[in-house]
Amino acid sequence: MRFLLPTPGAEPVTAWRPPLYPVPWATSPFDHFYFTRPIAVDKINWPNLEYRYGGVFFKPSAVHTGIDIPAKMGTDVLATGPGEIIWAGWGLYSGDPANLNDPYGLAVVILHDFGFQDLPLYTVYAHLQQVDVVPGQWLKTGDILGKVGETGFTTGPHLHFEVRIGENTYYNTRNPELWLVQPQGWGILAARITDSYDNAISDLNVTLIDKDTENEWNLQTYPPLGTWGDGYYQENLVFGDLPAGDYVVSFEYLQNIQEINIQILPGKITYFTFRGLQGFGTTPPPTKKTNYLITPIP
What we know:
disordered N terminus; 0% helix; Immunoglobulin-like; Glucose Permease (Domain IIA); 17 strands; single chain; 298 residues; mainly beta
């Protein structure tokens, strides 16, 4: 199975932040910024900072497998890339279109006409107020597919957005922030934080500080189950939509504060590792770790 990359579209215009890089955007063979934003860029549309990929809200077993983008009820939801509608309606999680209690509420799934590493890509748009497409319909980037709502398990109007790779299941998600194109001049932080034996440290509280503005964010590494790192980066921490500049990352490990200065580069992923007593590193993973086999939770 072979896929073509998406065709670049016109550069969107926005007044509240820089315009997005063109899609697709990649500065290394392992980047995959293939998708534009599902909420128009002239509206505030970055992810909810308190409930990112891997967050836990409703109960310990309900891991958040996407990002939430707050928006007003009825806001247009846009296709982030071209492809075919393969689901439109209720019951996405349960697989039962008659299940009006499905946690995703009204949802749409697109099978895109391009993939990555010879695997198909899907995007999910959930908690919609209304659906304006039908299965089998083909959309181009930016086409309206529905309206923001609060159907399913929600605490208010917003869009739940997922990226799935290989199969269209809850167990095949990846962090959408590594797939959404960034504003021009902005970048992404990704990290793998482990103990000395390379076991990922789960639910670790991490602080990120912008040295220029002194803005501070509190982050958490992924939980032990329910999330999947990128095939190359194998990350367990991601923070996107960061203006290029100098930052400080800190967290506590074995009752000691660990700290690293990093530079977010425009249009790129800034990557670091921490491996217990071996400390920090900034060397990218070896290419042999590029692996997109799908391994569901037992």
